[in-house]
Amino acid sequence: MACRECISGALHEGATVGREDNIHGLPTYISEPPEGQAPKGIIVIIPDAVGWQFNNNRILADSLAKNTTCRVLLPEFMDGHAMSPSLFQTMDTITGNGWMIGKIPAIFRAIASFGPFLYFTRLSVSQPRIYKFFHDLRANEAATLPLGVAGYCWGGKYTFLLASDSEKASNGKSLIDCGFTAHPSNVTVPLDAQNVSLPLSIAVGDVDIVIPITQVQTVKSILEEKGKDRHEVNIIPGAKHGFAVRAPPNDEQAVEKGEQAKKQAIDWFNKHLSNSSQ
User: Fold this and answer.
1) Rounded distance, CA 32 to CA 46, Å?
2) pLDDT tens digit string along 92-114?
3) Residue 204 phi/psi, 5° resolution?
4) Angle (deg, nearest 10), helices 252-272 and 55-68
5) Going by DSSP bridges, is the β-strand pair 26-31/19-23 parallel, antiparallel, or unpaired?
6) Could you report the per-residue pLDDT of 135-165, keeping only the tens digit for each?
């Protein structure tokens, strides 16, 4: 699913400290732990619809690497079909005040972007690419390091699927040790929650138009019944879809909600990646 809030928000300015390389066949942004500290684990970000080159996602990767002492990987899982940040302005035009006739060019631009994205990043195309990356990673770099996944928006579905532990790596290990997701999209409720078996943390708003609060409450109930020590669902009042990645810097309340989600992710990975058995 893609909606207006999947490509709404703000571009975060700021320098990034990582580098680009090719890992297991995919262009990847790589952010390392602070200098002099060996990575205690690996975190793979499966990003929102704006993809691996989006500055917000790279800034987020840098922050996770710094605060978890993990190597953070942000691969190109969308094969060149991510949404453009220029669509933020397009959506502002469509949803803003003004005559409908003046919005027609913006509407056509949005349609022209949504169509290819939905087609080229559909589940049947993206899941094999994502799973292959995790298989290769677990058999190599993560063979002796704990491995986590952080999925945002579009990446949330795959976080749920990976947390179901339905496939094992060639060495017999789970593809991940734990997962975190914020404002996930395309989640099949209740099935995806029922299938979760590995530790999963979720940050979601109570006004998210992609996953309504009734579905959030269902997911929360299912996961908490499985065990509050292994799963958590934090419902953040007033948080909209995309809050963990694209909060406007001039909106203090939105920024605070995004920081809350980031702290939740950091705390989760520090807890579960540090304690994962190898």
Assistant:
1) 17
2) 777 778 778 877 777 778 888 88
3) -150, 150
4) 40
5) antiparallel
6) 999 999 999 999 999 999 999 999 999 999 9
Query: Would you give the distance in Å from CA 141 to the centre of its chain?
Result: 21
- Are 137 and 77 spatial neighbours (Cβ–Cβ below 8 Å)? no
In whole angstroms, how large is the CA radius of gyration of the chain?
18
Q: What is the pLDDT of residues 245-266, one digit of tens each?
A: 999 999 999 999 999 999 999 9
Q: Per-residue pLDDT for 2 more than 80?
A: no
User: What phi, psi does 237 have (nearest 5°)?
Assistant: -60, 130
Instruction: Provide the 3-class DSSP secondary structure of residue 216.
Output: helix
Cα–Cα distances in Å, from 237 out to 150, 151, 157, 183, 253? 21, 20, 22, 13, 11
Residue 241: CB partners within 8 Å, gap ≥ 6?
Answer: 3, 5, 6, 153, 183, 185, 205, 208, 209, 210, 211
Our CA angle for 91, 97, 100, nearest 5°, is 80
Total-model pTM: 0.94
Three-class secondary structure of residue 66 per DSSP: helix
Segments of 76-185 assigned E as strands: 147-152, 178-182
In this structure, are strands 26-31 and 71-75 parallel, antiparallel, or unpaired?
A: antiparallel
